[in-house]
Design brief:
The protein is α+β, with helices and mostly antiparallel strands and 440 residues long. The chain has two domains: 82-194, 2-Layer Sandwich (Phosphorylase Kinase, domain 1), CATH 3.30.200.20; 201-421, Orthogonal Bundle (Transferase(Phosphotransferase), domain 1). Helix content is 44%, strand content 13%. The chain contains eleven helices and 15 strands. It has helices spanning 2-82, 86-95, 110-116, 158-170, 201-205, 216-236, 291-296, 301-317, 333-342, 361-374, 385-393; strands at 84-85, 106-107, 125-128, 133-138, 144-149, 179-185, 188-194, 240-242, 251-253, 259-261, 268-270, 276-278, 298-300, 416-417, 420-421. The strands form five sheets. A seven-stranded mixed beta sheet has the order 1-2-6-7-5-4-3, with helices on both faces. A two-stranded antiparallel sheet has the order 8-11. Strands 9-10 form a two-stranded antiparallel ribbon. α6 runs antiparallel to α8 and α6 (216-236) packs antiparallel against α11. The longest helix has 81 residues, at 2-82. The protein starts with a helix and ends in a 19-residue tail after the last strand.
Length: 440
């Protein structure tokens, strides 16, 4: 009986152990199933959210693409209203013996421009600017061109592109660069200009060997030509146009050193009664912007007058305004010119290479005087370009003395210049380019 009860005891105990193991196993499987369902649920939620996010981004991308295509289509329509295909123009030109065919700008195919520039080869590259490279090309009819191919990452968008195309095409003046046409495709925006064989003014003016080519007669012709071009933009064109990026690299020269003002992508169009406006987007090149524009975004005709004054002083001296290596470390060209003028040493500002028998110091000093009047600190104290032309051409006209000038001293490490903070972008080094400084 003991053995029996012993067996029963042990048997019952064994059954109890088996039952407990079964309970633990069931509980373990339930926990595993719970975790599996939890992981599946969380994973499903994450996947769903990712899918929704991807869908939203894709939809947004498609919407932007459609919007961009729509804007591009509208732009093309607006431009092609005034443009004619290059092939049609050539035919019209032949039938009319080269008459009545030179005033319209053309729409070129990408293939024709690619062929003209040898597929935009590096050998044909004229320069590189903030908005893209410029290439020399030759069309099938033998005409030489300069093709500005805007970068895809360029800040110049459709608005600036349209602005430059329409502006230059409508402006007709001997001192403004001529736009031949444009090419626009989903991934390409190209402007086609007349080719200027001697590149830009800065190519000669700031080079120690090439500056000898620019004698005083040529420099004065350039000074007068720029002034005449600005008079046309400010007064005689269909709309009042403010260039906003007048500088030496935007003055192009042909084979006979005749000048053309170029680069109208940043130009501002005013109504005939418009005199002054404010902008939140400050564009231009450091050293050529007046204080009221750099500080507050105030745009007026006096914006270009200031830039012209800086450029005039650069042409006379052969030095850059923002190059501190040429002057006292505390002054730029404007400050240096003002210091010499007050000390009665204006002749020391003149580039020695132009002091020959054909140069009258009195004429050069008069140009310096006009330049100083154009860079005065207050816009109201600066002359308008019509008066500037008179000052340059009429030697008997009495010039009033310049007042306080807008030059900057004691450049601080924090970027503060003359009492206001300004952040700089790298200046362009190309021949036909856009350079801009965005307001911060």
């Amino acid at each position: 009986m003991r053995l029996y009860f012993g067996k029963s005891h042990y048997g019952i105990a064994g059954q109890q152990v088996t039952f407990k193991d079964s309970m633990l196993a069931n509980k373990s499987r339930a926990n595993i199933r719970w975790w599996i369902w939890l992981i599946v649920a969380v994973g499903g939620i994450i996947i769903t959210l990712l899918c929704l996010l991807c869908y939203a981004k894709l939809k947004n991308h498609i919407a932007k693409g459609e919007s961009s295509k729509k804007r591009q289509k509208c732009l093309l329509q607006e431009l092609e209203d005034d443009a004619i295909p290059s092939t049609v123009r050539d035919k019209v030109k032949e039938e009319n013996n080269d008459r009545h065919a030179g005033h319209e700008f053309q729409s070129f195919s990408f293939e024709s421009i690619s062929t003209a520039t040898s597929d935009f080869s590096i050998e044909n590259k004229l320069g590189q600017g903030g908005f893209g490279p410029v290439y020399k090309g030759k069309l099938l009819n033998g005409q030489e061109i300069a093709a500005k191919r805007l970068l895809r990452s360029s800040k110049q968008g459709l608005i600036e592109f349209k602005n430059e195309v329409i502006l230059i095409a409508k402006l007709q003046h001997t001192n403004l660069v001529r736009l031949l046409g444009f090419c626009i495709q989903p991934e390409e925006k190209i402007l086609i200009y007349e080719f200027m064989s001697n590149k830009s003014l800065d190519f000669f003016l700031f080079d120690s060997t090439k500056r000898f080519i620019l004698n005083w007669k040529k420099r004065f012709n350039i000074i007068e030509g720029i002034a005449q071009g600005l008079v046309y933009l400010h007064k005689y064109s269909r709309l009042r146009v403010i260039h906003r990026d007048l500088k030496a690299s935007n003055i192009l020269l042909d084979g006979e050193m005749n000048l053309k003002i170029s680069d109208f992508g940043m130009a501002r169009i005013f109504g005939l009664k418009g005199l002054e406006e404010n902008t939140n987007r400050i564009v231009g090149t450091y050293g050529y912007m007046p204080p009221e524009y750099a500080r507050y975004g105030v745009v007026s005709m006096k914006t270009d007058v200031f830039s012209y004054g800086v450029l005039l002083l650069e042409i006379v001296s052969g030095k850059k305004n923002n190059s501190h290596n040429c002057f006292d470390y505390q002054l730029n060209l404007i400050g240096y010119a003002w210091q010499l003028w007050n000390e009665g040493k204006g002749l020391e500002l003149i580039d020695p290479t132009i002091l020959d028998g054909s140069c009258l110091p009195s004429n050069v000093l008069r140009c310096i005087h006009v330049g100083l009047l154009c860079v005065q600190d207050q816009a109201t104290d600066r002359p308008i370009m019509v008066d500037v032309v008179s000052m340059l051409s009429k030697e008997t006209l009495q010039l009033f003395p310049p007042k306080h000038l807008a030059f900057f001293v004691n450049t601080n490490q924090d970027g503060t210049l003359g009492g206001f903070e300004i952040k700089l972008e790298k200046c362009s080094i190309n021949n036909v380019t856009h350079s801009q400084m965005e307001a911060r």
